[in-house]
Amino acid sequence: MSGKRSTRGNRYGAEVRSATVVLVDKLRPQYPSLWATIERVSADTGIHTSTVRAWLRQREGADAVKPQPCAPDSEIHSLRVELEALREVNRGLIAANRGL
Questions:
Q1: Mind giving me the DSSP string for 26-49?
Q2: What is the mean pLDDT of the chain?
Q3: 55: closest CA among 6, 99, 14, 96?
Q4: What is the DSSP letter of 99?
């Protein structure tokens, strides 16, 4: 298996990936859609459109905001108490509205 190439992830180096993503960003204003830009870059570089799109999505994932840690149990408890109080008020308003 030493002579075989991996089918995922190793065909293009990090520099090629980075340069391709930068090229998409640079050409994006010249095309009506992101997909049109990807098609152009793909044609120019010989890299498949799905590969270019995957690299863009990977970058978006890396730039995404990380989720915040869960609220402490005391905060969850107080929110549940508040929710139940609001539900009780809502039930009262519904009952009052039926009387009108």
A1: HHGGGSSSHHHHHHHHHHHH---H
A2: 84
A3: 14
A4: T
Q: Who wins on pLDDT, 6 or 83?
A: 83
Q: Are 14 and 28 in contact (CB under 8 A)?
A: no
pLDDT in tens, 15-36: 999 999 999 999 999 999 999 9
Confidence band (pLDDT; 50, 70, 90) for 98? confident
C-alpha torsion sign, points 33, 37, 43, 48: negative
How far from chain centre, in Å, is Cα 88?
A: 38
The model's pLDDT over 31-45, given as tens digits with 9 standing for 90+, comes to 999 999 999 999 999
Is there a contact between 21 and 59 (Cβ–Cβ < 8 Å)?
Answer: yes
Q: How far apart are CA 53 and CA 45, in angstroms?
A: 13
Separation of alpha carbons 100 and 94, rounded Å: 10
Angle at 27 between CA 26 and CA 28, to 5 degrees: 95
